[in-house]
Amino acid sequence: MKKRSIDVVVLTKNSQRTLEESLESIYRNVPVNRLIIVDGYSTDNTLKIVEKFRDKYGKVIILKDNGTRGSARLKGIRYVETEWFMFVDSDVVLCDGWFAKAKNFMCKDVGAVWGIELWAGMKHPKTLKAFLWITRKIFDIRGGTHDLLVRYEAVKDITIPTDLHVFEDAYIKQWIEKKGYKVVACYDPYCIHYRPENVWTFKGSIEIAADAFRFGSLRKIPEMVLAYGFYVAYFLYRSLAKKLKT
Fold this sequence. Notes:
Elements (H helix, E strand, L loop, with lengths): L5 E7 L6 H11 L2 E8 L6 H12 L2 E5 L4 H10 L5 E5 L3 E3 L3 H5 L7 E10 L5 H18 L4 E5 H4 L12 H11 L3 E12 L8 H14 L5 H25 L1
Parallel strand pairs: 1-2, 1-4, 2-3, 6-8
Antiparallel strand pairs: 4-7, 5-8, 6-7
Helix pairs in contact: 5-9, 8-9
């Protein structure tokens, strides 16, 4: 396994809206060994953007997967060849110095390092403070793969259920912890998450919360009500603010 640089796994499907900025942030802030793209048969310009980065940097692997996020992440893991690797979502932008900051947490007993997500456009100090607290609580419940640095040894034999399209991140977190490793959640490094436009609607916000409850553990529902209730309230606030401006 190579140690000096890391493989980066990115799941894509019609990701042209944010992909270029996301990949630029990866190459700027992570010592990339190979970029592993797992694409869900995109029909937009996603793969043209990927090819642009392959022409510039080389070492880009493009895989196809028409299943769930669980099957796509598992396929990406199977191609990893470095001691540590990253999952980075195609709609996030990494903060400056992401990997340099994460290195401080790469101890022998750590199996993964997660950088908290901030939603693009969130600026009000009190709202941001509440959001950070809630988001950290959600990670404890279900994990997260927006920007997750993973020790390969901790997941090399993982078997993610192929029907997991939501909460595959919880499965990965629990697997790493069962292996005896810690999963560290950080406020720095972090990533900026550019949520799709449909979430800033009443229907979109309800669907996100509904998915969380549908696939979540029943015993954790009280905690999730608080967390996702805040998210829905913020979605609706943003949606209303957007309508008032038009």
